[in-house]
């Protein structure tokens, strides 16, 4: 399960990441609570707009961020983005502590966080392949998810407690400090142990990555499924905060719901780390589980029962996302991995600007439970799309070893082979160059 920890760079990265992620979840909890209760009067639509501004830049800047992740040293890119994110957190803290923060200013900072994360996310995802081998990559991606969700288990609960104890401004200060852990981890990397990666000097940019994905129906299906659930089902800040208010809870109650969600998420990530590779069928089943669990959670009558069902929602969500991330990374040509991952992150993060305002509007116009049901239906639709593709693709067939067992042919990494320039092919040389015959010491024509 922890085979990637044999690598010093990955161990260092994992430790720095979990500390930084705890701070990130603390800040996310504080930001949501500030918008919902301090800057507005429980306005879920404003919260949806904040999320849209924060997650919109990855979609708008995808052509640039993927190119940066493929062309430049990812470690240096991450040093820059992590430093910028730390400074932005300190800026928000200063405005909150001095009492001059307004909703428009928070909108501006949300957009700035989004721009920094737009460059950070694809570089961070692709950097995993620079630290570990292809055989370890699926395990490393799953452990990254486990780190993220271990932080999610602690961060929101600690953030909610600190909001009540010392206020939201100091939570942003605490998050700024945790960025130092990731920056130090990047500085401690053993440079000679980082894996060299193929350089793609073509001018195709994002268009080349898009053509690659479009030529892979399996990736198209994965992207569509992730988009549906990301846009309509994964608006957890809106769902959890409004449900906490419905049950009469404060910020600490909201933070506890986020941590409960992380219990299932962590279990899903650790289970994914045990698998030797990411498989599409796991993604499809997890999407269906997410849809069912979400619909069930919307019908829960009490805070405790709602929290219990959230464990299953978190488990299915992370099982789906970890499998999708691992599948995209391990089956994509290394020269295009940064651009393909930028497209993938744009689908995940960019779906929020579409779905979050809609979810916020549904909460305000109808109820939080209605918005959760809509997200559950999106999960069920995603399951249907994935199941239909498995049947249509012809990869699903009966196992030779078991009469009633079905197996799915999985995709393996395929390198991009570029067409040769006709002018570079010299027919005269090809016709006269000797061909050495193995084992004879002679050559023929």
From TrEMBL:
Q: Which UniProt keywords apply?
A: Cell membrane, Membrane, Transmembrane, Transmembrane helix, Transport
Q: Where are the transmembrane segments?
A: 12-28, 48-69, 170-189, 219-241, 253-273, 280-300, 306-328, 340-363, 369-392
| Annotated membrane topology | Multi-pass membrane protein
- Location of the Major facilitator superfamily (MFS) profile domain: 1-396
Signal peptide positions on this chain: none
Q: Where in the cell is it found?
A: Cell membrane
InterPro entries registered for this protein in UniProt: MFS_dom, MFS_trans_sf, TM_effector
Question: Could you tell me what this protein is called?
Answer: MFS transporter
């Amino acid at each position: 399960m922890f085979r990637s920890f044999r690598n010093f760079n990955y161990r260092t990265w994992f430790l720095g990441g979990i500390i930084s992620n705890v701070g990130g979840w603390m800040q996310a909890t504080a930001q949501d609570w500030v918008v919902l209760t301090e800057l507005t009067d429980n306005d879920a639509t404003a919260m949806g707009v904040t999320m849209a501004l924060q997650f919109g830049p990855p979609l708008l800047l995808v052509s640039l961020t993927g190119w940066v992740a493929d062309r430049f040293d990812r470690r240096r890119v991450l040093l820059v983005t992590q430093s910028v994110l730390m400074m932005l957190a300190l800026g928000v803290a200063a405005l909150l502590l001095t009492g001059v923060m307004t909703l428009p200013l928070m909108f501006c900072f949300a957009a700035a966080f989004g721009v920094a994360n737009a460059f950070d996310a694809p570089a961070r995802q692709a950097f995993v392949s620079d630290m570990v081998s292809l055989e370890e990559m699926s395990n490393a991606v799953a452990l990254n998810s486990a780190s993220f969700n271990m932080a999610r288990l602690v961060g929101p609960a600690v953030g909610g407690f600190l909001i009540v104890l010392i206020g939201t401004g100091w939570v942003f200060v605490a998050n700024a400090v945790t960025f130092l852990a990731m920056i130090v981890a990047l500085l401690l990397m053993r440079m000679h142990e980082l894996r060299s990666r193929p350089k793609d000097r073509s001018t195709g940019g994002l268009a080349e990555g898009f053509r690659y994905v479009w030529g892979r129906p399996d990736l198209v299906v994965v992207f569509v499924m992730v988009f549906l659930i990301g846009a309509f089902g994964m608006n957890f800040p809106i769902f959890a905060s409004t449900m906490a208010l419905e049950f009469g809870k404060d910020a600490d109650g909201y933070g506890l719901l986020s941590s409960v969600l992380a219990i299932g998420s962590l279990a899903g990530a650790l289970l994914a780390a045990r698998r030797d590779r990411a498989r599409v069928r796991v993604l499809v089943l997890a999407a269906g589980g997410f849809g069912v669990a979400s619909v069930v959670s919307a019908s829960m009558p009490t805070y405790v029962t709602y929290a219990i069902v959230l464990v299953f929602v978190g488990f299915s969500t992370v099982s789906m996302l970890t499998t999708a991330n691992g599948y995209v990374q391990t089956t994509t040509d290394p020269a295009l991995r940064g651009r393909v991952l930028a497209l993938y992150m744009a689908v995940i993060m960019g779906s929020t600007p579409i779905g979050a305002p809609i979810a916020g509007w549904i909460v305000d116009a109808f109820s939080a439970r209605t918005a959760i049901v809509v997200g559950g239906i999106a999960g069920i639709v995603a399951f249907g799309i994935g199941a239909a593709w498995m049947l249509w693709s012809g990869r699903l067939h009966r196992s030779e070893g078991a009469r009633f067992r079905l197996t799915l042919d999985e995709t393996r990494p395929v390198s991009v082979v570029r067409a040769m320039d006709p002018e570079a092919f010299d027919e005269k040389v090809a016709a006269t160059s000797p061909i050495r015959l193995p084992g004879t010491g002679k050559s023929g024509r």
